[in-house]
Design a protein that fits this description.
- With 694 residues, this protein is mainly β.
- The protein is built from four helices and 36 strands.
- The protein has one domain: TonB-dependent receptor, beta-barrel domain (Maltoporin, Chain A, Beta Barrel), CATH 2.40.170.
- 5% of the residues lie in helices and 58% in strands.
- It is globular, with a radius of gyration of 25 Å.
């Protein structure tokens, strides 16, 4: 791209300007909540407060993975990036379709983009997240319903996108690696001629990944494009638009199967499906943000998001074993699903003094309307050998299993006040009230009764206190809550109570030096009104469950010495069922939750001498043993994976990098989901990347 333009003086000037922009932020003289992060440590965020707030002033754990970390590690999955954060684990790809996570012991199958949650009527995003336009990934630990409405109690992942710049810039990468992996990605940003204050950015990627799994000659393909614009028509008005369009054609892959309490790892490529089992999906996302400053103390913000897409699926799925556990019984499934949603957020941020105390008040109203429909048909397909599955079985005739329609319409009103009490004390208080309706109907051959709309309502308070006894040290304590409408078909109940959660957390942050921060937290989360299967096998659910997770964690991010950067975390969790209609499983561990886990990534770059431009990276990830289902019927073992990287800046425009993953070729299950869905980690692999930048 323009990186090789042959104008070195201009390129050097542009790079200098970009570095200054990265350091100073956008118009404030400092880093902002949406600007690039210099190095591995962010200092500000808006994910936890919806205001541009220093992380040390947030009374809840927030960890940020900057773009530089993603680039140095050459992460290809959102899952890879967030596992540098303590107590965050991959929870499964839903058979190669999307990204799901376990945060502080609880599964979450959705995330936010620039502060907007993905369609609340869908139970998962229809594609795997591409990282081509990602500026930073932020993980807010614990419940976040006071600002985001519905959500899981474990936490929220917020993807912050790359903003356009008035300083021309471009970067592009070409990659090739093990198992036939190929990828190209790039991003171009420049001012738009003829319009003062208008800049655009176009980010894109395309990849083909045959993977190490035995699909025959099939490949996983993804294409992604993201246009973005910023416009400052006046010094007091800011407009930002981003669109993301993704197409995915991938193999439907359930992974390995558990038998006799464990998942055999003698052959991690073993595939129990058929090569014709495919997943084709599209996801479209658009967001418009307009901010206007009436004066230096009062700002109005309007955010509008529209989302839509769907998928078609033809799958061969495992359903059980024959009597002597030598054959895997299967069925064929086809699914056609579509979704659409709108989200509108109107917020007013005011800063003022009252009774000698400084307040930053956020008042907001959010309207969401989401819809999805999913039609599922099932049929028979021949069984295969457990140890030596082969291809060639054709699906039989199919019949309707379900025709699901779901619509959620919610109105949320929320208020938050950040109060500077003086003497190093800051108080955060907030509350949200949601009300609306939900329609959830799943027609089956035996059930055609259309239920009435369900009324939804929930209140989500939050309170937190921050104390800074000395400048490098921050102490905090907080209480936060979550609210999530039920989507289960509950027996004899037309308006089931929503699922709720609450968290008590205490923590500390310590700046070990001006560019290195260590944070730690202890917490306890309780999840109530969990829907569980009716033990009478009626096909319905009963709301009676409760789950609890408690633990401790620590994270570190930043620069130890000039050229030496580090990011990582370590955590301990005790997550179990505390109440269930099936009393036999009370006390059982939650699915895919290790007691101990940790991850570390560090790089060193030579800045002078004959090795100038050379960088070395090393990473280690440890995950303890986990149970694969709530019955605790099987366990997957602990593993430690070692990674490494070497890169060289040929000049200011070009970098060549080689990233190596799983140096010891360890065999392990990365993502247990249930007995028939256990995704193994990849064997030793190498990825070579050539990057050009201007």
């Amino acid at each position: 791209m323009a990186a090789g333009s042959g104008a070195p003086a201009l390129a050097q000037e542009a790079e200098t300007a970009l570095r200054e922009l990265s350091v100073t932020g956008i118009g404030t003289g400092n880093e902002t909540a949406s600007s690039p992060v210099v190095g591995y440590r962010a200092s500000r965020s808006a994910t936890a407060t919806r205001t541009d707030t220093p992380l040390r002033d947030v009374p809840q754990s927030v960890q940020v993975v900057p773009r530089e970390v993603i680039a140095d590690r050459q992460d290809q999955r959102l899952t890879d990036s967030v596992t540098t954060v303590s107590n965050v684990q991959p929870a499964g790809t839903l058979q190669g379709r999307t990204d799901t996570f376990v945060i502080r012991g609880f599964n979450t199958q959705t995330y936010a983009i620039d502060g907007v949650l993905l369609n609340q009527a869908s139970n998962f995003y229809t594609v795997q997240r591409d990282l081509a336009d990602v500026e930073r990934i932020e993980v807010l630990k614990g419940p976040a319903s006071v600002l985001y409405g519905r959500g899981e109690p474990g936490g929220l992942i917020n993807v912050v996108t790359r903003r356009p710049s008035l300083v021309p810039s471009a970067d592009a990468s070409v990659q090739g690696g093990s198992f036939g992996f190929r990828r190209v990605q790039g991003s171009v940003s420049a001012p738009v001629a003829g319009v003062e204050g208008l800049a655009g950015r176009l980010s894109f990627s395309a990849q083909t990944d045959p993977t190490f799994r035995n699909y025959g000659d099939r490949e996983n393909i993804r294409q992604f494009i993201a246009p973005a614009f910023t416009w400052n028509p006046t010094p007091d008005t800011r407009v930002y638009f981003v669109g993301e369009f993704t197409k995915q054609d991938s193999q439907y892959d359930e992974g390995l199967i558990a038998r006799n309490g464990r998942v055999p790892l003698d052959n991690v490529a073993r595939f129990y499906g058929e090569p014709y089992s495919r997943y084709n999906a599209a996801a479209n996302f658009g967001l418009l943000r307009v901010e206007h400053d009436f004066n230096e103390n009062l700002m109005l913000r309007q955010v509008i998001s529209a989302q839509g897409g769907g998928f078609d699926l033809l799958a061969t799925r495992a359903t059980g074993f024959n009597n002597n556990n030598t054959l895997v019984m299967r069925r064929s499934t086809t699914v056609t699903s579509s979704y659409a949603s709108v989200d509108s957020q109107t917020e007013l941020v005011g800063k003022f003094d009252l009774l000698g105390l400084h307040h930053t008040v956020l008042v907001g109203f959010e309207y969401t309307n989401g819809y999805r429909r999913s039609i599922t048909n099932q049929g028979s397909v021949a069984s295969v050998s457990f140890l030596n599955p082969t291809f060639g079985a054709l699906p039989g005739a199919q019949s309707l299993q379900s025709d699901l329609k779901q619509k959620n319409e919610l109105n949320g009103l929320y208020v938050q006040d950040q109060i500077d009490l003086g003497l190093g004390l800051q108080l955060l208080v907030g509350v949200r009230y949601d009300t609306g309706t939900q329609f959830y109907f799943s027609r089956t051959p035996s059930s055609r009764t259309i239920p009435p709309d369900q009324d939804l309502s929930g209140t989500s308070p939050r309170v937190g206190l921050v104390y800074r006894p000395v400048d490098p040290l921050t102490l905090y304590a907080s209480y936060s809550t979550s609210f999530k409408p039920q989507t289960a078909n509950v027996l004899n109940v037309s308006n089931p109570a929503p699922e709720t959660g609450d968290q008590y957390e205490a923590g500390a942050r310590l700046d070990l030096n001006p560019a290195l921060t260590l944070s730690a937290a202890a917490f306890r989360i309780t999840r109530n009104n969990v829907a569980v299967s009716d033990p009478a096998n009626t096909g319905y659910s009963i709301i009676t469950g409760q789950q609890r997770s408690e633990g401790v964690e620590a994270d570190i991010a930043g620069q130890i010495l000039p050229g030496w950067k580090i990011i990582g975390g370590v955590g301990y969790l005790d997550a179990s069922i505390t109440k269930d209609v099936n009393t036999a499983i009370v006390g059982n561990k939650l699915t895919a939750v290790p007691a101990f886990s940790g991850s570390l990534w560090t790089t060193y770059e030579f800045s002078e001498g004959p090795l100038r431009g050379l960088g070395l990276g090393f990473g280690a990830t440890h995950v303890g043993k986990r149970v694969g289902d709530l019955n605790n019927s099987y366990t997957v073992g602990a593993y430690t994976r070692l990674d490494a990287a070497i890169y060289y800046d040929i000049d200011q425009n070009y970098r060549f990098a080689v990233n190596m993953r799983n140096l010891t070729n360890a065999r392990y299950i990365e993502q247990p989901f249930n007995q028939f869905n256990n995704m193994p980690g990849a064997p030793f692999s190498v990825l070579a990347t050539l990057t050009a930048r201007m």
